[in-house]
From TrEMBL:
It is an enzyme of class 2 (transferase). The lineage of its organism: Bacteria, Pseudomonadati, Bacteroidota, Cytophagia, Cytophagales. Residues 465-691 form the Histidine kinase domain. It catalyses: ATP + protein L-histidine = ADP + protein N-phospho-L-histidine. CDD domains: HisKA (cd00082), PAS (cd00130). This is histidine kinase. Pfam families: HATPase_c, HisKA, PAS_3. SUPFAM superfamilies: ATPase domain of HSP90 chaperone/DNA topoisomerase II/histidine kinase, Homodimeric domain of signal transducing histidine kinase, PYP-like sensor domain (PAS domain).
Length: 691
């Protein structure tokens, strides 16, 4: 191929740019195409179209695929090493290294079949080396005047950068998907316009849906816990408002409708808006933070418990009469209660670590340090008496004691020392006075015992008088009253009413004296206590109250009852009073129903308000419940007082001593009694007896 001067340009090369000029300068007579004057009209027309085009284009003409191309091809095609030699040359010669890969595409296009490829890898030789390049191309057959394919037009663009970006985007998507899977996130994507919701398999599993199922929006909303649904809905509407920036961040609970499994999730998302403010997309993630929240709640509870224990420890130690301290395993003191600072007048800074030695008496310093060092080395309990200077300058004797706290879960090593300092100065200097006080108190106790014995004797004399001397006049009043009614009843007129009222008063006085006698005879004589089976006691009481039970149609539900150490007669009085009261104070037209149960409970579970008169490790808790008229609990303490009544004598008989007897029997047996009740809701008496 040679260049020659062309006196006048060919019209079809007008506006052909640099390549148009170059084509004119070539001696085409030496090529298979021959002189441009002889070129077919189809070739000229095709060239006139492709040369000014901004799309990279190469025209391969004839069976040898002679090449012609436009300026745009120079900037996109790897022609730095091919141009201008490629012009007017057969494609197979120019692209010798690629021809095995692309020849088939040329021939297919030459046969009349267009060939298209997107992002195809076709390596090119650039900067003296082969590099991978990606291309999108189209081989189009160009027909000549006879209708046959005269050539192939190749339009192409290099997509190496786009492919790289797509590949990077794909990698990022894979990394994101891996991160989502690793983080066990659920993903969601909502089309607010179409109300269409999509999500990943994990989200569907949480919602109780198959992995290949669609996600109905109502299903997703209904899965939100009832307590959170309104709050979540409001937050979604806020996110879909462009004024809020579209950000979405909320914690709530979802419930799987199939398994009822409850999860606490954190939802994060972003709404996307058109220019007119309409949201077209709302997507984000759900993170299952159930374990995190549960752990956090446990940690907060543990921390709260720890702080509470520290507060309690500090509170308790500050109010203890002793000085309380703790030390690290190496002996450095790290805590003193307020009593220490009050006694010594020192500050925390001057007391901690080894500062506690400063107020020791000089004569006691050496032996105290020796004893403390010995305990630290051996782990044996620390105990010593020494003198310490008080804030007013006076030296006072103290008893110091400490025990090691060991790591029982591991190697039993000492993790801390806890100790106290007790002021024993008065005990050491006033022992004589204390002995005298002991003698005086012993004498006073003997006197008190004598007074108690005399009081018991007086009580026994009162019981005798009450049972004989006081009852005798009442019996005569009732007997003479009966005689008067029998002999003169028809002559007394209105006087008969007064006579009956007199007899009734005498009868009530007799019952009152009997109850007082019973109350006074209840004494604490534990040497006479023996094992009493309460099951038999209740059976005996049921037998005694058989007529009252039948008349009132009462039912008793008695569970298994224990045996306790006590006085059988007193325990019989206890159950007699409680059961007869339950029958007496029943609601109108409602048969009494009485339930008796028992349970052995440790002392640590007793309510704080329950204070038995005898300490024990375990107690028998007895409950006697009824469905009677009940009472207002503000009278709970009053009902156990002697002569206290909550109802008029005309409504319910009695002297008001029965429950006082019950309480005294319980206290004599080392126990305690409580009562709960509501008007018309029945009453429950709870008795605690050692056992």
């Amino acid at each position: 191929m040679t260049n020659r001067a062309i006196p006048a340009p060919y019209s079809f090369l007008t506006n052909g740019g640099e390549m148009g000029k170059l084509i004119q300068s070539i001696d085409w007579t030496t090529t298979p195409l021959g002189s441009p004057d002889q070129w077919s009209q189809s070739l000229k027309t095709t060239l006139s179209s492709l040369l000014p085009s901004q799309f990279p284009t190469i025209l391969f003409w004839g069976p040898q695929f002679i090449q012609l191309y436009n300026d745009a091809a120079l900037t996109n095609l790897a022609l730095s090493d091919k141009h201008p030699m490629a012009l007017a040359q057969p494609a197979a010669d120019t692209w010798r290294e690629l021809w095995p890969r692309v020849a088939s595409m040329f021939h297919r296009a030459l046969a009349g079949t267009p060939v298209h490829g997107d992002n195809q890898l076709i390596p090119v030789f650039r900067n003296q080396q082969w590099v991978d390049a990606y291309w999108t191309y189209s081989y189009s057959p160009i027909r000549d005047e006879s209708g046959d394919v005269g050539g192939v037009m190749l339009t192409f663009t290099e997509t190496t950068e786009s492919v790289g970006m797509l590949r990077k985007l794909k990698e990022q998507e894979e990394q994101l998907r891996f991160a989502i899977d690793a983080a066990e996130l659920g993903t969601w994507d909502l089309d607010p316009i179409a109300n269409r919701l999509t999500g990943n398999a994990r989200l569907k599993t949480w919602l109780g849906l198959p992995k290949d199922a669609d996600i109905p929006l109502p299903t997703a909303l209904n899965a939100i816990a009832d307590t959170d649904r309104q709050r979540v809905s409001e937050r979604i509407w806020q996110a879909l408002n462009p004024a809020t920036g579209g950000q979405y961040n909320i914690v709530y609970a979802i419930v799987n409708p199939v398994t009822q499994e409850r999860r606490i999730v954190r939802a994060r998302g972003q709404a996307h808006f058109w220019d007119d403010g309409v949201a077209y997309r709302f997507n984000g993630t759900l993170q299952d933070i159930t374990a995190e929240v549960t752990t956090q709640q446990k940690l907060e509870k543990l921390n709260e418990d720890l702080l509470d224990q520290i507060r309690r420890f500090t509170f308790v130690t500050d109010f203890m009469p002793q000085m309380v301290w703790s030390a690290l395993p190496d002996g450095r003191h790290d805590f003193f209660n307020q009593r220490w600072y009050d006694f010594t007048g020192l500050t925390p800074a001057s007391s901690l670590n080894d500062g506690w030695i400063r107020p020791l008496h000089p004569d006691d310093l050496q032996r105290t340090e020796k004893r403390w060092t010995y305990s630290l080395q051996t782990g044996e309990p620390y105990e010593i008496e020494y003198r310490m200077k008080r804030h007013d300058g006076q030296y006072r004797w103290l008893l110091a004691r400490a025990l090691p706290l060991r790591d029982e879960a591991n190697d039993m090593s000492i993790i801390r020392w806890f100790g106290t300092c007790t002021d024993i100065h008065d005990q050491k200097t006033l022992s004589t006075s204390l002995e005298q006080q002991v003698e005086e108190r012993t004498s006073a106790l003997k006197l008190a015992n004598f007074d108690l014995q005399r009081s018991n004797e007086n009580l026994e004399r009162f019981a005798y008088v009450a049972s004989h001397d006081l009852q005798e006049p009442l019996r005569k009043i009732q007997s003479f009253g009966d005689m008067l009614k029998g002999t003169y009843g028809d002559q007394l007129g209105d006087g008969l009413l007064y006579l009956e009222r007199m007899q009734g008063a005498a009868g009530r006085m007799s019952v009152l004296i009997k109850d007082l006698l019973t109350f006074s005879r209840i004494r604490t004589q534990r040497d006479t206590f023996r094992t009493v089976p309460l099951q038999r006691v209740v059976q005996d009481v049921q037998s005694d109250l058989e007529l009252a039970i039948q008349e009132s149609a009462a039912t008793l539900d008695v569970g298994p009852l224990p045996s306790v150490l006590g006085d059988e007669a007193q325990l019989d009085q206890l159950f007699m009073n409680l059961i007869s009261n339950a029958i007496k104070f029943h609601q109108d037209n409602v048969p009494p129903r009485i339930t008796i149960r028992s349970e052995r409970v440790p002392a640590s579970t007793l309510p704080k308000s329950v204070k038995p008169t005898q300490p024990a490790r375990y107690y028998q808790r007895l409950t006697i419940s009824d469905n009677g008229i009940g009472f207002d609990e503000k009278y709970a303490d009053r009902i156990f007082q002697v002569f206290q009544r909550l109802h008029g004598r005309s409504q319910y008989g009695g002297t008001g001593i029965g429950l006082a007897i019950v309480q005294k029997v319980v206290e004599n047996h080392g126990g305690a009694i409580t009562v709960t009740s509501q008007p018309n809701q029945g009453t429950t008496f709870t008795i605690y007896l050692p056992g």
